[in-house]
Amino acid sequence: MAEHRSMQRAALLDAARSLLSEGGTEALTFPALAERTGLARSSVYEYFRSRAAVVEELCEVDFPVWAAEVEAAMAAAEGPEGKVEAYVRRQLALVGDRRHRAVVAISASELDAGAREKIRAAHGGLVAMVVEALRDIGHAEPRLAAMLLQGVVDAAVRRIEFGVAEDPVVITDAAVGMALRGVRG
Predict the structure, then answer these.
(1) Three-class HEC string of the chain
(2) pLDDT tens for residues 35-79?
């Protein structure tokens, strides 16, 4: 029974990822989750009490996977500037990934305080990854620089998500250039 519930919960989360990446937070409804998974609508409520609960669990499951990919890219890079570049490039490479689209859609939605705090904490963990590289570069305020660097990444993510004007490679290269010039200064 526990294995069946676990499989159903995983199916619901997968359906939620798809809905969020296809239609944003408006698409994430319990009737849509029920339809995607073949469950009765009332059964969805047995797994999650609200949309915010779905969002919180997606963050708990997906954000660490995403962060691990960024961390692995940084670990494979040479030197502190290489780590900063890997930090930016890997996050931007993940923009097309369903998990990332879901996190972006989640971040844009109206969530309760608990869900927002979990997202903030997860983002803080991501930013913390690059602080040491910035310290090694010799930045006087590595934590502040890391938060500002993440702002450059977030702006590039939004630009890529729009997908209208520039090629994602051009956006990524510009973000890396800005990041590296900025952290050296």
Answers:
(1) CHHHHHHHHHHHHHHHHHHHHHHCHHHCCHHHHHHHHCCCHHHHHHHCCCHHHHHHHHHHHHHHHHHHHHHHHHHHCCHHHHHHHHHHHHHHHHHHCHHHHHHHHHHCCCCCHHHHHHHHHHHHHHHHHHHHHHHHHCCCCHHHHHHHHHHHHHHHHHHHHHCCCCCHHHHHHHHHHHHHHHHHC
(2) 999 999 899 999 999 887 888 888 788 888 888 999 999 999 999
